[in-house]
Amino acid sequence: MSQRRMMMNASNEKAKNLSKTLSTLLKYLKPFRIAIFFVILFAVGSTIFTIIGPKILGNATTKLVQGLIAKYSGTGSIDIDGIKHTLLLLLCIYVLSGILSYIQAWIMSGVTQKVTYRLREEISLKINRLPLNYYDKQTHGEVLSRITNDVDTMSQSLTQSIQMIFTSLITIIGILYMMITISWQMTLMALIIVPLSAVAAMSVVKNGQKYFIQQQKTLGEVNGHIEEMYGGHIVMKAFNGEERSISTFNKMNEELYTSAWKSQFISGLMQPITSLIGNIGYVGCCVLGGYLSLHNGLAIGDIQAFIQYVRSFNQPITQTAQIMNVLQSTAAAAERVFEFLEEPEQTPDKA
User: How far apart are CA 103 and CA 89, in angstroms?
Assistant: First the structure.
């Protein structure tokens, strides 16, 4: 599953009681607060190292250009040793960033799997303590959806969302700071594009949300119908219900097809739209950077670094918009699971 699809898919319903659901979810995460602290710490460290990389690479480019100019003007030569040291430092920074990123992902995956393992254990015990009238009111497909789909949704989205919340915020702040230190004029040019990208991303998420909600709802209905038909196959055959069953399935399948292709089509628009807006800002910064280099003496390496920052600036903004959808999906899935766990249990018969 692609990251974009995971962001906009899952349950995609809003939790009815968000504060209560998040409070309950935090109780499950509380035993792992030290691990989560290190996840956040390593995520921030990895992001900071990634942010300063383009600036160091820009310094190497500036040294190379200055050396070439000095060489051809007969006033000096290229500082090969200085460039080597700069590139070696850059390599070390990127390797360290990758190591920190790997460690925090490994820790967070362990935390998520332990939480979902505990939830599955509690669900397994809960199933045997529920009264029979609960299963009379719910289709088997609906119960299975809460046990499997919703728990899996929590597992996938928790692993990504906690990391991305902090990395996206740190990336936005860090890149903005580095851009300002290079050129405030070029930073203003880049910031003009930010509201357009944010509005475009939020618009796509908002318009695609209703189709994802319909897709999940219809998928649950299809699963429930198929399970009921297989479970009651003999009864259905005895009462000649084949045609009615097939007709019901075809109708549900058509609704699922319609909502699925619409949701995937709309979600697929996000990347090209934000890329188009980002490229417009990219071209504007290149033109302004060339002007500042000629008239204000802005270093070539700084222009290169700034362009890299501009290319990276839109991504965390888009991710921040998507994270809001991920959190809604997590809360909605968690709420369905917690509702199941809070169902009244069967009381033992008095002797």
Answer: 21
Count: domains in the chain: 1
- Ranges 60-64, 197-201, 247-251: which has the least confidence: 197-201
Alpha-carbon distance of 96 to 78, in angstroms, equals 29
Give the pLDDT confidence score for residue 100 in this predicted structure: 93
C-beta of residue 344 within 8 angstroms of C-beta of residue 28 = no
276 vs 33: CA distance, rounded Å = 41
Euclidean distance between CA atoms 202 and 319, whole angstroms = 10
Answer yes or no: is pLDDT of 44 > 50: yes
How many H helices and E strands in the chain? 12, 0
Separation in Å, CA 144 to CA 12, 21, 84, 185, 211: 18, 20, 59, 57, 22
User: How far is 200 from 277, CA to CA, in rounded Å?
Assistant: 9
Q: Is residue 221 part of a domain?
A: yes
Q: What is the CATH number of the domain that holds 151?
A: 1.20.1560.10
Span of 62-66, 104-108, 344-348 with lowest mean pLDDT: 344-348
Q: CB under 8 Å to 156, separation ≥6 — which residues?
A: 1, 6, 10
State the residue range of the domain holding 102. 3-114+129-341
Does 349 reside within a domain? no
Give the mean pLDDT of the chain: 80
Q: Does the residue 121 lie in any domain?
A: no
Q: pLDDT tens for residues 193-213?
A: 777 777 777 777 777 767 777
